[in-house]
Design brief:
two-stranded antiparallel ribbon; Rossmann fold; 27% helix; globular; 7 helices; single chain; alpha/beta
Length: 223
């Protein structure tokens, strides 16, 4: 799958659980990538990660694949590409509710979805003041949404840019409010990882702040 020399190359891998609209949501960002100078390849199979020529040349991998299973060969191809400098980026379940049985994948992405209490709820995404100058969130205010609020587990290797706060009540099994990451970046080898936990459906990704964050995140992650 050759690319023209001098062109940045993006591989968009989409599929898995259809409830997250993997085809519609990725098509939302394909024109942006093309306008930003990328030659875009679309793949509806995880076997794209096994194509050594593609994975060696690609500058950005955008994944929207909720749940599913990643084979050892597919993980090897994906992780080798990221370690060598390719960016890896995505939103919502397409990146942090993927391949729950793959420890290597979870290590690379730095986060795992565990719940969205209340299903569709009102909540706020808060930009961390100390990260307000980061190119992905620069100039953006905190913003409110009505959609799934992702409770994720993570680690200290993540550079968290924005968070979301879960409330506690007599009806919850947790007794105190707590904060979890909503947007973060991470390095893995020579590669860069970008995660936005917002993006349950196309409408979420069309919220101006969310769309701006994802677009900037894709560019930031790219080699």
């Amino acid at each position: 799958m050759p690319y023209d020399k001098g062109t940045r190359r993006a591989l968009v891998v989409r599929g898995g659980w259809e409830g997250h609209d993997p085809f519609t949501t990725t098509e939302l960002f394909t024109p942006f990538l093309k306008d930003s100078g990328f030659d875009v390849m679309l793949s509806d199979t995880l076997d794209a990660y096994c194509d050594e020529a593609t994975m060696r040349e690609v500058d950005l991998i955008v994944q929207c694949w909720t749940m599913g299973h990643l084979s050892a060969q597919q993980l090897t191809g994906l992780e080798a590409s990221v370690k060598a400098g390719a960016g890896f980026a995505g939103w919502h379940g397409g990146i942090v509710d993927s391949f729950r049985d793959s420890a290597g994948y979870l290590q690379m992405t730095g986060g795992q979805f565990v719940a969205h209490p209340g299903n569709m709820v009102d909540y706020e995404v808060e930009i961390l003041p100390e990260k307000s100058g980061h190119e992905i969130v620069r100039g953006l205010p905190n913003f409110s949404l009505h959609t799934e609020q992702y409770w994720v587990l993570g680690d200290q290797l993540n550079d968290v840019l924005a968070t979301t706060r879960f409330s506690a009540s007599d009806a919850t099994p947790w007794a105190e409010q707590f904060v979890v990451p909503a947007i973060w970046t991470r390095t893995w080898g020579e590669g860069s990882v970008f995660v936005c936990t917002v993006g349950h459906c196309t409408a979420d990704l069309e919220v101006p702040e969310v769309r701006t964050i994802v677009q900037r995140g894709l560019l930031w992650a790219s080699r």
